[in-house]
Amino acid sequence: ASNAELLTSETNQEGIGYSIVLKASKRVVVTFSVSTVHSGIARFQFLISTVNNKTSASFGDAIELSLPVFTPATSEAFATYGDVGGAEVIVQPIKTPKDVIPQFG
Length: 105
Prior knowledge:
It is a single chain. This protein is mostly beta strands and 105 residues long. The chain has a domain at 4-69. The protein contains no helices and 4 strands. The protein has strands at 4-6, 34-36, 40-49, 60-69. Strands 1-2 form a two-stranded antiparallel sheet. Strands 3-4 form a two-stranded antiparallel ribbon.
């Protein structure tokens, strides 16, 4: 994956991904927990392969998916009004909100 970090389970090592084994004619839903690095495009590659055995040859296929990652919308907004043309000096306190995403402020 690019622009994404795969959050693996305890049985899978980071960076390697997931491995599952299915019996013939079975289906399974596989979910992936990921975290994006920054806004832009996140790309994921998926590979599938079958085991080579006496009755059938090995088969494999792959796909790459691109998903847009958008800048999160803010849940907090503020404004300060006033006149800055006079000789008076004021101090405007600023408090950093909790859980700020560093790259978006």
